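Sorry to interrupt, but I need a hand with the structure work. Can you supply me with one protein entry, sequence and fold together? No commentary is needed, just the two lines. Leave the record below and I will have a look.
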Amino acid sequence: MAISARRTPAAKTRSTIPQVSWRAPQPAPIVLVSGPEEICAERAIAGVRDYLRAEDPSLEVTDVRADDYAPGTLLGVSSPSLFGEPRLVRVTGVEKCSDAFLAEAVSYLAMPQEGATIILRHTGATVRGKKLLDAIRAGEGAGIEIACPAVKRDSDRFDFAAGEFSTARKRIAPVALRTLVSAFADDLTELAAACQQLISDVPGDITEQIVERYYGGRVETSAFAVADTAIAGRYGEALLSLRHALDSGADPVPLVAAIASKLRTMARVSGSRESSAALAGRLGLKDWQVDRARRDLSGWSDATLGMAIQAAARADAEVKGGSRDSVFALERLITVIATKAPFGS
């Protein structure tokens, strides 16, 4: 069987076991936590531990590394103790597990220990351990799967942040949520921390003004703030935002990526007369993204948008090593976008 380009076991095996959200984890004899998004996996694993500990405070917790495994460990730590306390075994590194662990884990599925919960963490970075994952997904070991797929797209980050507030039964204004997501577009862990800080610190509803008060400096120097001012034609402000971002330690590569992403969204939306909801559904976007892109298109033509996209492609190549001066490449890109004219004209 050919291996997919992404080399993720989940893409090749259809699961027959229950799929559980990482936001509402629950125990089972075998809990497979799969996927690359580490913060979601950490939440899932901690949630299973808290669930079990709430049922019985005497829970025994043991950590095992699948890549540095001593034969016999899995059975030893999962077997009933003298007083019969429940056991939780957290196994990391399954995507690089040793042959000894793989053999013992597959055998364990045939006879899980009573009172034991085994969490197997597989990032999907390799196909190592596929035999074990296939067996779990086929229903051996009375397992469940908690998938933690990568959060990459703007819409995914928006959903993640919205879920943070929804889970906490906390209301946040849509514009405040968009501002917050834009401010932490490059780091999901920081976005999660920002959401939790607002949830814990703010007694009432969260408004745009509150987000600005907490994270105004971050918002001002975010990649999307640079892109927004340039696309709006505010040339001087765009260059100033770019300088602030760079002085704050922003990496030119994600800066260009954010600008290019907004330009591509504008191009995808341009010319369509569909409703925002219909177009968003067809393009895999959110309604607000379509509405924002349509507002951004004011003053743009197909020719100027195409020129800007070409300039972004050139800048992307240059900041990734094609030029000795990545700052100049960024400034030239901002100039082309903000002036809607070729550089130097």
